Amino acid sequence: MAEKELDSSYAQDEKIGAIGTEIAGEGRRDSLVDAARRQSVALNIVENPLKSASKEQVVYDAEAFARDNGMPEHAEMFGRAALVARDPEKFDQVTELSEDERSALAYEHTHKWHGPAMLWYSIGLCAIGAATQGWDQTGSNGANLSFPQEFGLESTDENPNPRGEWIVGIINAIIFLTAGLIGAFIVDPLNHYLGRRGEIFLTAACLTATPIGSGFAKSWQGLFAARFVMGIGIGAKNATVPIFSAEMAPHRIRGALVMFWQLWVVAGIFLGFCANVIVKDTGDISWRLQLGSAFIPSFILMVGIYFCPESPRWLMKHGHLAKGYRSMNRLRAHPIIAARDYYYSYIIYKEELKETRGSGYFQRM
């Protein structure tokens, strides 16, 4: 009897142990899923939520989105666009599309660089924004040969001037210090209140005025002040123009277009050196012309940004959904493509909000 009770006790213990192992295994699996989810969020990877919903639900939600946000005339088109966004590579299997819409999607599929003139105008303007940085960086290179003499800061082997060397170094470096320490930190509020276009216009105006101010400086303190403010404009502009470009660009070429930033920074450096060489023999005012010439690309940017549409993503974030679609429509070759990209962007934006809810300014940075 005692042996039977002992065997029964052992069997019960084994069963409990098996249950515990199973629970622990499920806990580990849940932990792995949670870890994978956290890693996905950390990498800003959001899976397409439309794939997990039924076809009928996707159409219903997309049409409701259009009707509820001031676009009832586009409701049916948004339903078709949502079906395409559900699996963009299989658009030819969406029977609800019209022949015109199917042709537009097929042409886009085989011509990935195809886009309307407004898209390329806006991207070209962003390239000028990148060139502005390169030109701003190099304007002082040629000026360093003569402005120290103008302000009594020259240092030679025969007459060393350590104080003058320090001042010249600070004047050269200050744009990079203020770009990182001030300009980068005001990007978020400027974008929030002014939008992408407004922020770019403001910083381009700053980068138009400060080179001209540098050229008219009457003392090294005035030159320092102009370049101090210039650095703030550089930092704020540099953080916004690539975002503006990315939010306008179609996903299939977004990476390539954003990488153009580095290419056009180098182009700006080249143009800045060309300007230095062109005016180097103009006498005592050469350094003023070398510093002042940096206003050229920023002035083009300041005027040109007025004709660009606002970022669809920014308008969406601030609740202007109908305006956001109109903006996207100007940047896409066909309304069905604009509706697909805009609605999918909205769905992903909602998913991102779930993951970032409660984050503050420094967490977003």
UniProtKB/TrEMBL annotation:
The UniProt record lists the keyword Membrane: yes
Signal peptide: none
Transmembrane domains' residue ranges: 166-187, 223-244, 256-279, 285-308
Major facilitator superfamily (MFS) profile domain residues: 122-365
MF terms in GO: transmembrane transporter activity
Domain of life the protein comes from: Eukaryota
Subcellular localization: Membrane
Main localization, broad class: membrane
Recorded topology in the membrane: Multi-pass membrane protein
Keyword Membrane attributed: yes
GO cellular component: membrane
UniProt xrefs under PROSITE patterns: MFS (PS50850), SUGAR_TRANSPORT_2 (PS00217)
Keywords noted in UniProt: Membrane, Transmembrane, Transmembrane helix, Transport
Family that this chain belongs to: Belongs to the major facilitator superfamily. Sugar transporter (TC 2.A.1.1) family.
Record protein name field: Major facilitator superfamily (MFS) profile domain-containing protein
Organism the protein comes from: Hortaea werneckii
